[in-house]
Amino acid sequence: MSSPALHAFGLRRRFRHPSGDVEVLRGLELSVDAGELVTVSGRSGSGKSALLALLSGFDEPDAGRVLLAGVPIDGAPPWHTCAVLPQALGLSAELTVAENVALPLRLRPGGEDIEQRVRGLLTDLGVAQLADRYPGEVSFGQQQRVALARAVSGRPKVLLTDEPTAHLDSGSIPAVLELLRDCASQGAAVIVATHDDAVHAIADRRVRLVDGVLAAA
Ligand SMILES: Nc1ncnc2c1ncn2[C@@H]1O[C@H](COP(=O)(O)OP(=O)(O)OP(=O)(O)O)[C@@H](O)[C@H]1O
C-alpha cells in the first residue's frame, strides 16, 4: 500500500509567553492523499497557520512527525515537493511578478516552457497585465494571486495555502478555486486553511481545528 502524500501525527506545538505558555497543537493527526483537497477551518487563533508552518517544515514541532510520501521532513522541503502560500505571501521584492512565479521552475527545470507556464497562470488569475511590475507596485490582493501562482507553478506534490481568498473581491475568487481544484485533479495533495465557505464548498474533505486537534467539520 502506498503512503499518503502527507501524513502528520502526534503533532504538538507550544508557544512561550511571559503571561503563560499556550499549547496550540496537542497531538494532532492528519493524512491527505495525492489528488485530495482538504480544507481546515477553526476560529481565529486556533492554530491553523501554526499547523501549516509545521507541515511545510518552516517550524518544528515539540513532538510528532510530518512525513511526505512516507519520508520524514527535515527542514523545509524543495518547492516541487511541498509549496506554500503563507499568509505573509513571502514574494521576493527584488523580482518582478513574472520572475517570482518562474522561480520554482528555474530552480528545477522540468522541460516545460517556463514563459508559457507563467503567462498561463497569471492570465488564469487575472493578473497577467502586472507581469513586469514588482510586488511593491501591486495591491495586496494582486500579490496574493501572484504568490499562489508561484506556489503552484512547479507542480508541487503537496500544496499548503493559508487563507488564499482572504484579500480578494468576489469576482477574483472563482479563478483561485478553479486553480486549487486543478492542482488536486493533477495529483497534488492540497491543504487550505480558510474561513471562506466558498473554499470549503470545493473540498473533498473538511476538517476543523478545535482544542489543538482536528475533527471532521
Ligand atoms: N511565533 C509565535 N509565538 C508565540 N505565539 C504564537 C506564535 N505563532 C502563533 N502564536 C499563537 O498561537 C495561536 C495560533 O495562532 P495561528 O496564527 O496559528 O492561528 P490561526 O488559526 O491561523 O488564526 P487566524 O485564523 O486568525 O489566522 C495564537 O494564540 C497565536 O497568538
Automatic annotation (TrEMBL):
The keyword Magnesium does not apply. Residues 6-217 form the ABC transporter domain. It comes from the Bacteria. GO terms for molecular function: ATP binding; ATP hydrolysis activity; transmembrane transporter activity. GO terms for cellular component: plasma membrane. SUPFAM superfamilies: P-loop containing nucleoside triphosphate hydrolases. It holds the Pfam family ABC_tran. Keywords: ATP-binding, Nucleotide-binding. This is ABC transporter ATP-binding protein.
